[in-house]
Specification:
By secondary structure, this protein is mainly β. The chain contains one helix and nine strands, in the order βββββββββα. A three-stranded antiparallel beta sheet has the order 1-9-8. It has a three-stranded antiparallel beta sheet with strand order 2-3-4, with no helix packed on it. The N and C termini lie far apart (26 Å). Keywords: 2Fe-2S, Iron, Iron-sulfur, Metal-binding, Nitrate assimilation, Oxidoreductase. This is Nitrite reductase small subunit NirD.
Length: 114
Amino acid sequence: MSQEWQVICRVDDIPVLGARVVARAAKPDVAIFRNTENKVFALLDKCPHKGGPLSQGIVFGERVACPLHNWNIELPTGCAISPDEGCTQKFSLKVEEDQVYLDANELSTLAVEA
């Protein structure tokens, strides 16, 4: 299946060391993160631990700290840092000419089971 890219926002619309939430019909929503190097990542806005909103966490390097219990989640993979275990869904993303794109098919269908 070929990818259909959907424009979400501009890189500058995402706060540095923060996130922007992309609302969608298939809950939970998607969080798009930006670090100090302007790298952009997209994860399901749900910590694999207790379902905390990762979009409200603090970004450092290529990780985000869940605001509920401070689990560290790797932004490139969506997986928790050991000794914690579990992963949240990551989404295909591309950046072209300062525009952030997500795969429209993933955006409409992928969701991690509770």
